[in-house]
Design goal:
The protein is of the alpha/beta class and about 260 residues long. The protein is about 30% helix and about 30% strand. This is Glucose-1-phosphate cytidylyltransferase.
Length: about 260
């Protein structure tokens, strides 16, 4: 099954990093978060990737062009100007990097991938969030209900301490409780090709009209994932993920357990 990853946004809330690189290329543990996402999919057997590029897409292209050379051996004949690669340690991934426009919105990027995805079921996620969602169980859930779209619903931790009161007396204090307000869109979609018909064009935001219409028509189902999920919207988020990685406690690194 093909995996589509949207990696074209500007990432303005992480401007400390995204001034010089696209957000999916911000590193966690010395690797771009995009690599972490792809590694999670590949660990479950999905290694056919279609990455929708936009802002600073050339940075992502250069990374993957250089990947094999940097991971393996090079024999360089200076006089002839030839370069031979060998002993590559790169993963067995098929990576397709698709230019989808600088100002294109999320729905438009998905629509532009249609010629590459074809008329088949596919997976979709954003290039800035990691999770330990069980992808095989996600797909089984999608197949079981027969609808056009499945979204992974998650409950992220709150950014601030939660308090419950009796008058002015604090009855309970939790520093990092799970979000009490309910489930949110965690991406990690499984989609049927008919969803392309729900997207009008470049200026369509996937999270607006298409998902709203799918829900209204009873074609959107939610796979509830109570485990780890974390997006990387801010420098604080980046530092949290880096801290988890450095401590050897990165829940999304499912390949470490495979």
């Amino acid at each position: 099954m093909k995996v589509a990853i949207l990696a074209g946004g500007v990432g303005s809330r992480l401007s400390e990093e995204t001034y010089v690189k696209p957000k999916p290329m911000v590193e966690i543990g010395g690797r771009p978060i995009l690599w972490h996402i792809m590694r999670h999919y590949a660990t479950s057997g999905f290694n056919d990737f279609y990455v929708a590029l936009g802002y600073k897409g050339e940075y992502i292209k250069k990374y993957f062009v250089d990947y094999c050379a940097l991971e393996g051996n090079l024999a360089i004949q200076l006089k002839e100007g030839t370069v031979a690669q060998s002993g590559s340690k790169g993963p067995d991934w098929n990576v397709n990097l698709i230019d989808t426009g600088i100002a294109t919105l999320t729905g438009g990027r998905i629509k532009r991938l249609q010629p590459h995805i074809g008329n088949e079921r596919f997976m979709l996620t954003w290039g800035d969030g990691v999770s330990n969602v069980d992808l095989q169980k996600l797909i089984e859930f999608h197949k079981s209900h027969g609808k056009l779209a499945t979204v992974t619903a998650v409950r992220p931790t709150a950014r601030f301490g939660h308090m419950e009161f009796d008058g002015d007396k604090v009855l309970e204090f939790s520093e990092k409780p799970q979000a009490a307000e309910g489930w949110i869109n965690g991406a990690f979609f499984v989609l049927e090709p008919e969803i392309f018909d729900f997207i009008e064009g470049d200026q369509t935001q996937w999270e607006k009209e298409p998902m709203e219409r799918l829900a209204k028509e009873g074609q959107l189902m939610a796979y509830r994932h109570p485990g780890f999920w974390q997006c990387m919207d801010t420098l604080r988020d980046k530092q949290l993920l880096e801290s988890l990685w450095q401590k050897g406690n990165a829940p999304w690194a499912t390949w470490e357990k495979a």
